Amino acid sequence: MVNTRSIEIDMLRIVSILIVVIMIHVPLNYAYNFYNDLDRFGVFVVNNVGIFTAMGSFVFASGFGLYLNPNNRKINSTKKILAFLKKRVLRIFPLYWIALVLFLFFLDYLRINPFYLLAHIFGLQIFVAPEFGAPILTLWFIGVIVLYYLTYIIINTVGSIKRIIPVSIAIFFFFVLLNGVFGLVEYRFFFYYFMFIAGIAAAGFFTSPYYNNIKERLIKIPTAASLAIPLCLAVLFYFLLGFLNQFCYSTLNLRYGTSHIEFILERNPNFIELASVFLLFDLIMISFVIFALSSFNFASRALELKFSKTRIESIISAIAYSTFCVYLFHRIFLIIFDFVLTDVLDVNIFARDNFYLVLIFVPFIFLFSYLIQKGMDKTINLASKRKFREATIPPPEITAE
Question: Can you give the pLDDT at residue 23?
Answer without folding.
Answer: 77
